[in-house]
């Protein structure tokens, strides 16, 4: 949507600026020598972005140098500092994904003292070493003790409800993606923003641009996108009512043209693009909600087969199964194995992280469960299981864990098992273990962002006590090569007692 068209929804956007937290991701090379990187990274590094003409409706508080910095801390620090320096000019706050904006708020919670000191002194912390960032920030930064006291007063109170509108009082809306897996962040964004509208403006992917939200200020639950037929040739594969989507190939006889879709039905998006993709299955499941004139409008329902998602990561059931198998191999020397498991994406903390629930079986009935548990603890087996799982997951997940910290450490929770002749393991703080019994897990598929756990196995509120550990080693290597230890921290939580959990209607 052209920037000026926004004026019909939010007047006066040409009188201020947007505080957008934008970042580049690291790049890799394919075996053939081609550069592989996210589409937004390509855009930010392009001359089209770096040399974009002045547009009063599209002015950022963040210097381009800060956006292009590959160091996540330096980039975030500079963007937050510049946003604070220009706080009264900010009319909208945003990021690409809702999770990205929440990471920015979390960064402010952790670093407001340093930011206040820099504002008061008019100097930039030595932790920011990038020369281009230092030069860009120096053009804005002047000693401002009054602003420093204001920021410190707002952040030191410990009351973070409505912090966005308190620090940036002229903010009119949040510009973030809150559909699909990002919908899980809506309540937290409402808390921090004091209930500001959330605008979902467009629907696009690495493959092409799909459509626009013609009512950008609508409630997030009502967002529908109008497909733009000039962007590509769009076809639709009917999605079965039982949740089944046909296999990887495309049966052309099943494809439905854009003009023939039916309201209320769900389809998987298939595109043929100017760049050369031919009947490519995007993997998005859409529901037809209506028409704008003759153009169909769609609501994003979910990504096909995605089990877990925190941000741009998409982990399906097969990937998770492979990761569990890889990690459970570490249990074999201890005559233990994973009987069943389930999972959820926990977004209560920032950043969110994967939680994997394991039911363990000690196979050697002649040995006590306590002895087996003690051996597992002594050799830090569960911590190594966390690392093994993270190494087995896809490159997008691992990049988000290591490069920018947009995903937190993976967590394994051992739950009480109930199998005849088997012993479960219970982990307590202090390393005390004992055999236990309880309700068994069923292996389940989960909707992105919300675990479909058995009725008696919802996580406790608040979380059980956790044992934190941090393992350091070599950086994560590409999956096509040999992998060694990584520098990924891991998290092992105490046992979750199913009998203590509230019954869920899920």
Q: Topology of this protein?
A:
Layout: E1 17-21, E2 28-29, E3 35-36, H1 39-45, H2 47-50, H3 64-68, H4 72-85, E4 90-97, H5 98-121, H6 131-138, H7 145-156, H8 163-167, E5 173-177, H9 186-193, E6 198-199, E7 202-204, E8 209-212, E9 225-227, E10 233-238, E11 256-257, E12 266-272, E13 280-292, E14 295-303, E15 306-308, E16 315-316, H10 317-328, E17 336-346, E18 353-362, H11 369-378, H12 381-392, H13 395-402, E19 411-415, E20 426-427, E21 433-434, E22 466-469, E23 490-496
Parallel strand pairs: 1-4, 4-5, 5-6, 18-19, 19-23
Antiparallel strand pairs: 2-3, 7-8, 8-9, 9-14, 10-11, 10-12, 12-13, 13-14, 15-16, 17-18, 20-21, 22-23
Give a quick rundown of the structure.
InterPro entries: GH3, GH3_C, GH3_M. By secondary structure, the chain is α+β, with helices and mostly antiparallel strands.
Question: How would you describe what is shown here?
Answer:
- The chain has 506 residues and is of the alpha+beta class.
- It has 3 domains: 3-199, no CATH class; 202-303, no CATH class; 306-500, no CATH class.
- It has 13 helices and 23 strands.
- The chain has helices at 39-45, 47-50, 64-68, 72-85, 98-121, 131-138, 145-156, 163-167, 186-193, 317-328, 369-378, 381-392, 395-402; strands spanning 17-21, 28-29, 35-36, 90-97, 173-177, 198-199, 202-204, 209-212, 225-227, 233-238, 256-257, 266-272, 280-292, 295-303, 306-308, 315-316, 336-346, 353-362, 411-415, 426-427, 433-434, 466-469, 490-496.
- An 8-stranded antiparallel β-sheet has the order 7-8-9-14-13-12-10-11, with no helix packed on it.
- A hairpin with a 5-residue loop joins strand 2 and strand 3 (35-36).
- Helix 5 (98-121) packs across helix 7 (145-156) and helix 5 (98-121) packs parallel to helix 9 (186-193).
- The chain is globular, with a radius of gyration of 25 Å.
């Amino acid at each position: 949507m052209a920037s000026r068209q926004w004026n019909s929804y939010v007047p006066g956007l040409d009188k201020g600026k947007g505080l957008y937290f934008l970042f580049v991701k690291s790049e890799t090379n394919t075996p053939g020598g081609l550069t592989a990187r996210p589409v937004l990274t390509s855009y930010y590094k392009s001359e089209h972005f770096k040399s974009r003409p002045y547009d009063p409706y599209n002015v950022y508080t963040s210097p381009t140098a800060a956006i292009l910095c590959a160091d996540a801390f330096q980039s975030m620090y500079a963007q937050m500092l510049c946003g604070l320096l220009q706080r009264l000019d900010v009319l909208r706050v945003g990021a690409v994904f809702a999770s990205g904006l929440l990471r920015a708020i979390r960064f402010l919670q952790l670093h407001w003292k340093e930011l206040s000191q820099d504002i008061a002194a008019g100097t930039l912390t030595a932790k920011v070493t990038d020369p281009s960032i230092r030069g860009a920030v120096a053009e804005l930064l002047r000693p401002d003790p009054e602003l420093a006291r204001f920021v410190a007063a707002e952040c030191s109170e410990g009351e973070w409800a409505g912090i966005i509108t308190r620090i940036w009082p002229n903010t009119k809306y949040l510009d973030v993606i809150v559909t699909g897996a990002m919908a899980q962040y809506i309540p937290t964004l409402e808390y921090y923003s004091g209930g500001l509208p959330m605008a979902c403006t467009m629907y696009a992917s690495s493959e092409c641009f799909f459509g626009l939200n013609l009512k950008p200020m609508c409630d997030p639950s009502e967002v529908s996108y109008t497909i733009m037929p000039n962007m590509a040739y769009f076809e639709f594969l009917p999605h079965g009512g039982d949740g089944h989507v046909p296999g990887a190939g495309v049966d052309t006889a099943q494809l439905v043209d854009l003009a023939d879709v039916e309201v209320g039905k769900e389809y998987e998006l298939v595109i043929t693009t100017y760049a050369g993709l031919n009947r490519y299955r995007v993997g998005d499941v859409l529901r037809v909600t209506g028409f704008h004139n003759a153009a169909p409008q769609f609501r994003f329902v979910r990504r096909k087969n995605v089990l877990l998602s925190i941000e741009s990561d998409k982990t399906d059931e097969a990937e998770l199964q492979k990761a569990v198998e890889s990690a459970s191999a570490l249990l074999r020397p201890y005559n233990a194995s994973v009987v069943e498991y389930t999972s959820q994406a926990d977004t209560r903390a920032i950043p969110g992280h994967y939680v994997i629930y394991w039911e363990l079986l000690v196979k050697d009935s002649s040995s006590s469960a306590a002895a087996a548990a003690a051996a597992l603890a002594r050799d830090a087996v569960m911590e190594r299981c966390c690392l093994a799982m993270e190494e087995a997951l896809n490159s997008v997940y691992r990049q988000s864990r290591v490069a920018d910290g947009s995903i937190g450490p993976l967590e394994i929770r051992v739950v009480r098992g109930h199998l005849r002749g088997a012993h479960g393991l219970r982990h307590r703080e202090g390393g005390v273990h004992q055999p236990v019994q309880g309700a068994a897990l069923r292996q389940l598929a989960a909707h992105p962002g919300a675990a479909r756990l058995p009725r008696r196995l919802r996580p406790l509120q608040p979380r059980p006590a956790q044992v934190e550990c941090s393992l350091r080693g070599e950086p994560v290597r590409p999956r096509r090569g040999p992998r060694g230890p990584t520098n990924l921290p891991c998290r092992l939580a105490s046992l979750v007692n199913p009998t203590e959990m509230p019954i869920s209607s899920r």
